[in-house]
Ribosomal RNA small subunit methyltransferase G
Amino acid sequence: MTEAAELPSAPEQARAVFGERFSDAVRYAELLADAGVQRGLIGPREVPRLWERHLLNCAVLSEVVPENVVVCDVGSGAGLPGIPLALVRPDLKITLLEPLLRRTTFLTEVVELLGLDHVTVVRGRAEEVLGKLPPVHVVTARAVAPLDRLAAWGVPLLRPYGEMLLLKGDTAEEEVKAAGAALSKLGAVTTSVLHVGEGVVDPLSTVVRVEVGESPGGVRFAAKRAKAARTGRTRRRR
């Protein structure tokens, strides 16, 4: 049986990024390195690079998230990028959306332990909560699937003129080109690749921004949302 990898001390950049929530960020890192590994939420080889590759890499996403908006983190897993984003941005209202029970159990424990009152954990897949959760301004996700598939899950959750902010890797530009037609059908009007985290992470974090128009998800999902809204109004009258 191999020994558990040791969590390194937080780099100085972490203090500046997390500010008054730095101690909570340290606690979250400790939970990932301990319970997160034990429950199979992250691999033990990720522990030595938890700060640079995971917490800080996700926290700098805050640079491109608008103020005072509602966010849905799709496929949140162990809480990346949702938890680091919540720690640095108390102005946001964040839903961590995750289908697996063992992960939502962990997320709920983290949210309660860290006192993240502006964060809600929801168990389910994106396609299952469509029409049940109010549309959001921003959908976030972290390289859990190819761009076209991520967009098919996340774009329908957006309100008109919302945006997806997806943490991606070195192939981001290629993915954007390959997914162009699919994104257009989903109602995307602009897609761009951004680099964030100057002075914090090296290499910089790569973010794909997908901005939608007045019909996020395309015509089919617009009709589905309208039907869900009518059903909701009917139930409230009863």
